[in-house]
Specification:
Blueprint: E1 3-5, E2 24-29, E3 39-43, E4 51-53, H1 70-73, E5 74-81, H2 90-94, E6 103-107, H3 128-136, E7 141-144, H4 158-165, E8 169-172, E9 182-190, E10 198-207
Parallel strand pairs: 5-6, 6-7, 7-8
Antiparallel strand pairs: 1-10, 2-3, 4-8, 4-10, 5-9, 9-10
This protein binds zinc ion.
Residues 47, 51, 53, 172, 198 line the site of zinc ion (ZN).
Amino acid sequence: MKLIDVSVPIDDRLPIYPGNAPFDLEPVKRLARGDSSNVSTLRISAHGGTHVDAPRHFFDHGGGVEALPLDLLCGPARVVEVTTRAAITADDLAQLYVAGTTRLLIKTPNSRLWGDSTFHADYVGVGESAAKYLVDHGIKLLGVDYLSVEPFKTPGAPTHHILLGAGTIVIEGLNLRDVEPGDYEMYCLPLCLVGSDGAPARVVLRRG
Ligand SMILES: [Zn+2]
């Protein structure tokens, strides 16, 4: 059973979405200082690295991460690839085979940005028309390969509102660099952070 890890390593070189907290692993106890064990305190944005967005991210009365159904976070997933460097449109998606799948992961040139600790504001996002197209075509989970599904600083955040408002789960921050387009089995397990608008997740694929 060969698993492909499509989550990004969490360390201090992880690029951070502007305004979000940087990652920190703070030493609380250290053997080297005479303590009985090593214990750290973890500090990370709920939207740091590979993570899921819960409806509460954009809706105060939306569910938190604990309400996301695990049987939607795990199961058959299709990886498609776009080479556009502008926001993904409905027309881009119409040329791909996205219908008939519940879980869609979109590989873009973004996946090549991982490893660079600089945040790249010109990442490829999913435009409003594409978000509507996905909801209309029955996509219940969308995964993207940079820190936001929304093109950077889009006023009103229509893509998040359309997707999360329709109950579509959004996974952000995947690294799909070494993944060929095709059908896979996906396992996405976010931390059960009760009431949180997002949560870091480990995500792996297995060839279907
Ligand atoms: Zn997010």
